[in-house]
Design brief:
Strand content of chain A: 15-25%
Helix content of chain A: 25-40%
Oligomer: heterodimer
Radius of gyration of chain B: 18 Å
Order of helices and strands of chain B: HHHHEHEHEHEEEEEEEE
Structural class of chain B: alpha+beta
Number of helices of chain B: 7
Low-confidence stretches of chain B: 1-26
Structural class of chain A: alpha/beta
Mean pLDDT of chain A: 93
Largest sheet of chain B: 7 strands, antiparallel
Low-confidence stretches of chain A: 362-373
Strand content of chain B: 15-25%
Chain lengths: 751, 223
């Protein structure tokens, strides 16, 4: 019996070849085992269980046709082949679409049904698939996916590689790296599932399930790969479903279903690998020799029984002698001044993946770039069409008046609708979001309060019509330019620290400051913030309670908290909201002060605030009523959600330089000085055709929009699909620039 | 197959091939602690202790991070090292410690589970380590002038929480001072669980399932 085993990489993210060989040797001590590898740098070629090594040239240079012929010859001669390389298995699917009796890998049809992330074959198994999206979607949609999943998401490559991306900047960086490495935009983002990792590994021959085991990871490497585990039988219910899946797929070969078990015992399927896992010999140690069973099923030759078994296994690091015929290759030269030797994927799997992509896409290497991906609200276009661009000196912010008016009116309607006899819901406009007087006046007309973080902001609100009793004073800088504070009572003041509280108390006592409500801002526990009074240790919590007792009884008492939902994600924000309500309940009970006003800062991304806002906020008010029955007013601060869509930035193309086959560099007269939030979220971009005047949203492509500044990081958009007929002088409009882009924009490079 | 493997491992242990089996097999693991009371944190009946309990419950909810209520409160162990505790201890004192023993950590975890509305019971455990380990702990506890009644040769008395999963009287055992769920498939050996007693209300006759094991409420159960 001659058995070929491929995939002998034995680094920190090992392939299963060596484990397969060890198990095969145990089942068939006299078999000839040939190790197949595509790089002499894969240390598994030196493993003692291989009788021979069939070393091929790396995938990126291998003549695939002649290699296919050689493999066929081996199989026709009676050799069995167990592959430990996903891409080799996919390639075999093309070469042997109907399989080969001696090729112990799945047929092409089955492989399509286990492709990640969908893994359509999972239906019937007691598992769920974590939500995912393709990165072919627009940046706008990808950002929304990250927010909806609390930024607990993984960016995954088409075959290997998965990286956690905690922010938009991190996502952009890793997306660029992975799409470059794998030569495709077809990556995907998948939601993280918290829990314990476990696997079901099985083997089958022509649709018959031969054996299966369950393995729980008991120790992990830094890359979350198995280092130790325990192995048991697959539960009967799971095994029955698996048997049907295997039959339906007509599966041949090994496979692994990688899963996470969440705290509620739900299993989530991350991927189904079409091969044995690297820990496969751990299963043999536990009494389940699946490679042996596979060969037994394929050949009918009985495998040797296992005598010594234990349920748990672990790994150790071993040094083994190098085979004389395959001396170690020299290390590649580090790049000049570089760090490390760049040893990842020594067998050229990335190159092989690119060759497979090219074959799939008829040499294009990518599917057609999708255009017009992001939906721009009709009111944006209507507002922009009303601008006389001949009179606009670019770069220039455009005020989208109809859009802005509609948003403020909607917010006013919502607060009115949510208000009840016992709780008044009021909006407050955070002046720092964008102090443009058109927005401030819209807020005033819509019945908002004005929230200022400095006396100067308060003064601006007053000059735009607000009365002192409509002012909320917040933040750590409330005494900076205190001469601008009104003499009349303001609506509320929130203290940002205990020291600030003492200062406020003193000011209230002397009449320096008058306020209907005096309260505290709570620092969010478990989410880092520099603002508010901390509560995360018993000591500081006690200090807070004692300090609250200092606030004058003549004032009502209020609590404010703020955390940008766009940064922490929607689900986490709502949990934080409920968490703060609990803290408030404790504060009431311990301080003897009842909370009359709850001020909720949102930092809402516009789409998140608008989506089902009626339902979400109605539920929130019910929660407030449940936890804090004395609250009479809830102040909501939807500033970012209203201001961000209310302005856009117009700019013009200065020059276009195309690098055929690579990127297109487009220099524009805008810059990060006008779009400082570029690093935090994507902007929807419109291009105007200079001939027809038609506006079109830009999809994904290979253009980089480079700002006018001589600053390396002045790149205002990446991977943009610019129309072929775009030319210098064309107008681009960056939507969603009305909040902190506008208020934090700065003068730079203008002499 | 798995049960056979477990049986073999257990037999090996009982036959003396496991760690420290000579001592462990000579008596019932829980003999020394048969009537030992479960740890309870005292309350001064004043605001100081109430503030501490409020803080713990609110902090635990914040730390849940939008995760499941059945998530083990690992943050408690992250905040408090494991170390000697001088009993009797009150809530206002406990939350301010740098280190807490297993009984105090389990009591805090129990409070957290209850505040979440999760059905949970304090439980007593007996674990086996080695003489080298228990001698180290004896020195440390003696150095802090605290009781070493929890150590008996190579066995130790330990506390945790039995948390109901909500399905068929199943429980999971939360080891608060290790911040992990005890493996219901592991027996004997270093760190192995030898006995369990789940505290519910007096005279409760409830039965619980833990993996393949069944426990009666308030009774010591040898594993």
């Amino acid at each position: 019996m001659k058995i070929y085993v491929s995939g002998l990489y034995c680094g920190t993210n090992p392939q299963p070849g060596v484990g397969i060989a060890r198990s095969v040797r145990q089942a068939y001590p006299d078999a000839t085992i040939v190790g197949v590898e595509y790089s002499n740098r894969c240390s598994g070629i030196h493993w003692q269980d291989f009788d021979d090594i069939w070393l091929q040239r790396p995938w990126e240079e291998l003549n695939l046709d002649s290699h296919a012929e050689a493999v066929k010859k081996v199989l026709d001669a009676g050799g069995l082949w167990i592959s430990g390389i996903d891409l080799e298995i996919m390639w075999f699917g093309d070469i042997f679409p109907d399989g080969h009796p001696n090729l112990l890998t799945p047929p092409a049809g089955a492989l399509k049904q286990v492709a990640k992330p969908e893994v359509s074959a999972h239906k019937g198994l007691p598992v769920k698939i974590p939500v995912y999206v393709s990165t072919e979607l627009s940046d706008w949609d990808l950002h929304a996916f990250c927010r909806q999943n609390d930024w607990k998401v993984w960016l995954k490559g088409p075959y290997y590689d998965a990286v956690r991306t905690r922010s938009w900047a991190e996502f952009q960086d890793m997306h660029h790296r992975l799409s470059s490495a794998w030569s495709t935009q077809k990556l995907f983002l998948q939601s993280h599932v918290t829990g314990y990792e476990e696997s079901v590994c099985f083997c089958a021959y022509r649709g018959e399930l031969l054996g299966a085991v369950q393995m729980r990871k008991r120790d992990l490497t830094e890359m979350s790969k198995t280092w130790a585990g325990d192995v048991t039988e697959v539960p009967a219910e799971y095994a029955a479903a698996l048997r049907k899946v295997v039959r339906d797929l007509n599966w041949t070969g090994g496979a692994e279903l990688e899963m996470v078990r969440d705290p509620n015992e739900q299993l989530w399927l991350l991927e189904m690998n079409p091969r044995f896992p690297a820990w496969i010999h751990g299963g043999t140690i536990a009494g389940y020799n699946l490679p042996g069973k596979l060969i037994e099923g394929a050949t009918g030759v009985k495998a040797q029984a296992i005598t010594e078994i234990t349920e748990e296994f672990t790994r150790v690091v071993l040094e083994v002698p190098v085979r004389n015929e395959f001396p170690l290759p020299p290390l590649p030269e580090p790049f000049a001044g570089g760090i490390g030797h760049s040893l990842k994927h020594p067998s050229g799997l990335l190159g092989f993946a690119n060759r497979l992509h090219a074959a799939e896409a008829n040499g294009n290497g990518n599917s057609k770039v999708k255009e017009e991906l992001a939906n721009v609200p009709a009111s944006f276009i209507e507002d922009i069409k009303g601008v006389e661009f001949d009179n606009v000196q670019t770069p220039s912010f455009l005020f989208l008046e109809k859009t802005a008016s509609a948003l403020f009116e909607r917010a006013a309607r919502l607060s009115k609708k949510l208000s009840t006899d016992d709780i008044q819901v009021t909006n407050a406009y955070s002046m720092k979001t964008n102090p443009d007087k058109r927005l401030v006046q819209l807020a005033y007309k819509a019945g908002f309060l004005a929230e200022g973080i400095s006396p100067l902001e308060v003064d601006k609100a007053l000059k735009n019509g607000f009365k002192p009793e409509q002012i909320i004073l917040n933040g750590p800088g409330k005494w900076w330019h205190k001469e601008f504070l009104p003499k009349e009572p303001i609506h509320a003041v929130f203290c940002d620290s205990v020291a600030d509280l003492k200062r406020v108390v003193a000011a209230l006592e002397t009449g320096e400051l008058k306020s209907k409500i005096a309260g505290v801002r709570l620092r969010t526990p478990n989410i880092p913030s520099r603002f508010g009074i901390p509560i995360d240790t018993p000591e500081v919590f006690n200090t807070l309670i004692e300090s609250i007792k200092l606030l004058p009884r003549e004032c009502g008492f209020g609590v404010h908290f703020h955390m940008a939902s766009s940064n922490v994600g929607v689900g986490q924000w709502w949990h934080l909201f409920e968490s703060i309500l609990k803290w408030c309940g404790s504060i009431e009970a311990l301080s003897g002060r009842t909370i009359e006003l709850l001020d909720v800062g949102g930092g809402w991304f516009p789409d998140d605030w608008h989506e089902d806002s009626d339902t979400h906020f109605a539920k929130a008010i019910e929660k407030v009523r449940e936890y804090l029955p004395h609250v009479r007013q809830i102040v909501s601060e939807p500033g970012k959600a209203l201001a961000q869509p209310s302005m856009a930035l117009a700019m013009r193309i200065l020059e276009i330089q195309d690098f055929p086959g690579a990127a297109t560099d487009v220099v524009v007269d805008g810059s990060i000085a006008e779009l400082p939030m570029y690093f935090f979220y994507p902007h929807r971009i419109l291009h105007q055709n200079s001939e027809t005047g038609a506006w079109k949203t830009l999809g994904r492509g290979r253009a980089y929009l480079l700002g006018r500044l001589c600053m390396e990081h002045d790149v205002v958009a990446s991977n943009v699909g610019l129309p072929d007929d775009a030319k210098p002088g064309d107008l681009l409009v960056f939507c969603d620039a009305g909040a902190y882009d506008r208020s934090m924009s700065y003068v730079f490079g203008r002499g | 197959m798995s049960l056979d493997a477990v049986k073999n491992a257990t037999n090996n242990f009982e036959n003396g091939s496991g760690i420290g089996t000579a001592t462990a097999s000579a008596k019932t693991a829980f003999d020394k602690w048969r009537d030992f009371p479960i740890s309870r944190i005292s309350h001064h009946g004043q605001m100081c202790c109430e503030a501490a309990r409020e803080w713990l419950a609110a902090m635990d909810f914040s730390q849940l991070n939008a995760g499941s209520d059945l998530t083990g409160p690992r943050w408690i162990r992250q905040k408090y090292n494991w170390g000697p505790t001088t009993w009797q201890i009150h809530w206002c004192e406990a939350v301010r410690q740098r280190a807490l023993d297993c009984g105090a950590q389990a009591a805090l975890a129990q409070e957290a589970f209850e505040a979440r509305g999760v059905e949970s019971y304090q439980c007593q455990l007996v674990q086996q380590y080695s003489k080298e380990a228990t001698e180290q702990w004896s020195e440390r506890w003696n150095g802090a002038e605290t009781s070493v009644f929890w150590i008996d040769d190579d066995l130790i008395y330990h506390e945790g929480c039995a948390v109901a999963t909500g399905k068929n009287n199943e429980i999971k055992l939360w080891d608060a001072s290790a911040a992990w769920w005890i493996n219901p498939r592991q027996f004997g050996g270093y760190g192995g669980l030898r006995a369990v007693r789940i505290f519910t209300t007096p005279n409760d006759t409830a039965a619980f399932k833990w993996g393949e094991h069944s426990f009666k409420a308030n009774e010591w159960q040898k594993i």
